[in-house]
Amino acid sequence: MPRRPRVVLPHVPLHLIQRGNNRQICFVADEDYRFYLDWLKEYASKSGCRIHAYVLMTNHVHLLVSADRGESPGALMKALGQRYVQYFNRTYRRSGTLWEGRYRSCLTQAEDYLLACQRYIELNPVRAGMVAHPADYRWSSYRANAQGEADALVTPHEIFLALGSTAEHRQASYRDLFRSELEPGLVEQIRQASNGNFALGSPRFAEEIAALLGRRVTPGKSGRPRKLPEPESGDLIM
């Protein structure tokens, strides 16, 4: 079965997941995380991408990206992936692939879903039982978005900027969002959209994206396709 084309549009936020091949470890030492983030910043700038949120887990990466061009995220991940694999293989005296063949992604409706997606990304270490609070995890954008810690990699989205008139107000409003957990249904919706390369948003958002791209961007109905009735005599078979 052919792979579904990516759902990517300029300036529409994209939640992107890159996993280690067979879920193998991709980050071993602190230097690995630092090099990856440095190169992420370099290639994001070169490809015309802005990083709104990120988390580096031991065997996968989540990014929330906006791009100037539809091809920019692919260019970013190709350059970054090649550079990091070369470093990782050389450092740990290994060979072969490190990442899964394709990264997974979903277009994200900014108005209603962007902040939820940021929380989903930054809460990954909490859901994994690695820390009790996202501020306790070093390799994510939480400290930049919620606490104002300097991070040249992070570019706030306009939806985030609308949380308050000052940086302190925005950070406080953002921290307040973490006082409650993401609803399980929303977590599942984000996972399904990201893993399936679908659109994450309202039905109207999905319809607008589908119209722009000329194809379906939501999960199809499960089960076997409905069998069409046999044509009656005189009917045309198209």
TrEMBL record:
Molecular function via GO: DNA binding; transposase activity
Gene Ontology BP annotations: DNA transposition
Superkingdom of origin organism: Bacteria
Coiled-coil ranges from the UniProt annotation: none
InterPro entries hit by this protein: Transposase_17, Transposase_17_sf
PANTHER family assigned: TRANSPOSASE IS200-LIKE DOMAIN-CONTAINING PROTEIN, TRANSPOSASE, Y1_TNP DOMAIN-CONTAINING
Identification of the protein by name: Transposase IS200-like domain-containing protein
Organism: Thauera terpenica 58Eu
